[in-house]
């Protein structure tokens, strides 16, 4: 990988966006590498942690790519939207660690995470309209994350805000004051995630995402089917037996 650093440990894949010279701006190469990594994840990976090198998460799209794209600009933009769809849909728990610039595409990537942990001084924003362009691919994900009213305000003003405000908006779940506290919070959250059965987590994530826009009646029917399958599955049996015998189930790390 030219734009990513990868480290796997104990069922967790740590992905570091590694273009610090550009505040980890999202190039087409980085988009493609992220998509490749996600497509190749095996069943041993239960959580993915995404962070950025050099004190920044991601400053948005790589302007050099936009300038040189020519008639491929539409396809390039849509490729990033596909990445966001794939990050959101992965059955693994996705955790983002947000420091420095969290702008444009970086903001969008934060919006498709399951759990977001931010430094209190991280700088969030949707700067696209101040550059004469649109937050084209990230807009639907931003709306679903923080609601239409706040998304309109932020996108139509290009306003910047910090991690504390991001937590108030519901964009992030935890805000920490220093790198050590960030690392400790990541470890705490991972410890909680790894107490949960991986297949149950995957189905639960799919159910929660479906609840946003699927009709209630068929969704509840589907949920009942998944519940019955889970109870009879190896995970369900193991979880029940562990509870009866007062021990931790086998998936606990």
Largest sheet report: 6 strands, mixed
Number-wise, the strands total 9
Order of helices and strands: EEHEHHEEHEEHHEHEHHHH
Radius of gyration: 19 Å
CATH architecture of the largest domain: Alpha-Beta Complex
The best one-word shape is globular
Side by side, the strands of the main sheet go 1-2-3-4-6-9
Beta fraction: 15-25%
How much is the average pLDDT? 96
Helix content: 40-55%
Look up the CATH topology of the largest domain.
2-enoyl-CoA Hydratase, Chain A, domain 1
What do you see in this structure?
With 253 residues, this protein is of the alpha/beta class. It has 2 domains: 4-193, 2-enoyl-CoA Hydratase, Chain A, domain 1, CATH 3.90.226.10; 198-244. The chain has 11 helices and 9 strands. The strands form 2 sheets. The protein has a 6-stranded mixed sheet, sandwiched between helices. A hairpin with a 2-residue loop joins strand 1 and strand 2 (12-17). The protein starts with a strand and ends in a 9-residue tail after the last helix. The model has no long low-confidence stretch (mean pLDDT 96).
């Amino acid at each position: 990988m030219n734009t990513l650093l990868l480290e796997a440990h104990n069922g967790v894949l740590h992905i570091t966006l590694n273009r610090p010279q550009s505040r980890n701006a999202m190039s087409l190469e980085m988009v493609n590498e992220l998509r490749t990594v996600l497509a190749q994840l095996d069943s041993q990976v239960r959580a993915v942690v995404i962070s950025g090198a050099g004190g920044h998460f991601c400053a948005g799209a790589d302007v050099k790519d936009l300038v040189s794209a020519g008639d491929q600009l539409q396809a390039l933009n849509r490729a990033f939207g596909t990445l966001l769809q794939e990050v959101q849909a992965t059955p693994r728990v996705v955790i983002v660690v947000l420091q420095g610039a969290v702008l444009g595409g970086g903001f969008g990537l934060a919006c498709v995470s399951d759990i977001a942990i931010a430094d209190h001084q991280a700088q969030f924003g949707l700067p696209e309209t101040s550059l004469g362009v649109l937050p084209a691919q990230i807009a639907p994900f931003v709306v679903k994350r923080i609601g239409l009213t706040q998304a309109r305000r932020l996108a139509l003003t290009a306003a910047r805000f910090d991690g504390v405000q991001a937590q108030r908006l519901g964009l992030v779940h935890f805000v920490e004051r220093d790198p050590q506290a960030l690392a400790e919070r990541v470890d705490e959250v991972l410890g909680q995630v790894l107490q949960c059965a991986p297949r149950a987590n995957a189905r639960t994530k799919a159910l929660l995402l479906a609840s946003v826009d699927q009709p209630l009646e068929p969704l509840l029917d589907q949920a009942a089917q998944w519940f019955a399958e889970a109870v009879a599955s190896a995970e369900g049996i193991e979880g029940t037996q562990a509870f009866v015998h007062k021990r931790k189930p086998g998936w606990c790390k």
